[in-house]
């Protein structure tokens, strides 16, 4: 038995369009220097773009699940890109934004509920889990393209720094989400290939995987090693460490500014 997906189930939500509009306004303000405090413009632009990427991350999960056999996706509203339709609004939007504010860390949370029993085949289950972080990879490529294509002539420094910081968030999101930790997408990729016994033993830890990763990253040695890796990856993509650092510095406009970050010219 199949269920047709109504056109309204696929229509892009006004909530998502509103977030895109706010993001565009923040980007315009960062580019033109419209805001008295450039950090405010960077905050609006990066936060908006980060939420947009969260929506696209979850949409990728949902869309892949739909084509893999879960026809319940449409009725749940996941195809509308409306973040208010997600299963856990706290995990999906609030916590990821707090992670960015607290530590410049891109870490999407679990959001869409997929009826796995409707889906046949381990490869399909793995692909559904991989679709989200692969979206972050694509987003990172888009954000870094102006850097590795040397296409930044005439781009204001404030916007350049903001784009560099946004790229850092996407790279961290992709890398962390691919970790094989219960509750993260990386574990979802390998879970279908594990024995039933192992899956049952791991299942109780899934709700705590996200917080466990965040907690481990608070260990100074781990944090330094992790961000050294991120800086190396960004360097390969044409972004200098000071650019993403200055972007984060501008984003946290309420904190003391670092005089080493030039924003004029």
Automatic annotation (TrEMBL):
Keyword Zinc: yes
CDD domains the UniProt entry points to: S2P-M50_like_1 (cd06158)
Record bears the keyword Transferase: no
Membrane topology: Multi-pass membrane protein
Compartmental location: Cell membrane
Gene Ontology CC: plasma membrane
GO molecular function, one term: metal ion binding
GO annotation (BP), single: proteolysis
Keywords: Cell membrane, Hydrolase, Membrane, Metal-binding, Metalloprotease, Protease, Transmembrane, Transmembrane helix, Zinc
Name recorded for this polypeptide: Site-2 protease family protein
Taxonomic source organism: Streptomyces mesophilus
Higher taxonomy: Bacteria, Bacillati, Actinomycetota, Actinomycetes, Kitasatosporales
């Amino acid at each position: 038995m199949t269920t047709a997906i109504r056109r309204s189930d696929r229509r892009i939500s006004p909530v998502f369009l509103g977030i895109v509009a706010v993001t565009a306004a923040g980007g315009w303000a960062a580019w033109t220097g419209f805001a008295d405090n450039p950090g405010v413009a960077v905050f609006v632009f990066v936060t908006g773009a980060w939420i947009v990427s969260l929506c696209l991350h979850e949409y990728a999960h949902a869309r892949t699940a739909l084509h893999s056999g879960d026809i319940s996706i449409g009725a749940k509203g996941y195809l509308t890109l409306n973040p208010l339709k997600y299963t856990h609004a706290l995990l999906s939007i609030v916590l990821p934004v707090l992670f960015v504010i607290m530590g410049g860390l891109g870490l999407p949370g679990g959001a869409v509920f997929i009826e796995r029993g409707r889906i046949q085949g381990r490869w399909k289950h793995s692909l559904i889990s991989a679709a989200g972080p692969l979206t972050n990879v694509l987003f990172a490529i888009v954000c870094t393209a102006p850097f590795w294509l040397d296409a930044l002539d005439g781009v204001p420094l404030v916007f350049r720094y903001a784009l560099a910081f946004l790229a850092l968030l996407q790279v961290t999101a992709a890398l962390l989400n691919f970790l094989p930790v219960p509750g993260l997408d990386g574990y979802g990729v390998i879970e279908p290939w594990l024995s039933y016994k192992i899956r049952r033993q791991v299942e109780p830890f899934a709700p705590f995987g996200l917080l466990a990763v965040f907690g481990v990253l608070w260990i100074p040695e781990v944090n330094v090693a992790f961000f050294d890796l991120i800086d190396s990856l960004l360097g390969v993509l044409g972004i200098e460490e000071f650019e993403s650092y200055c972007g984060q510095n501008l984003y946290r406009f309420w904190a003391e500014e670092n005089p080493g970050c030039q924003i004029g010219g």
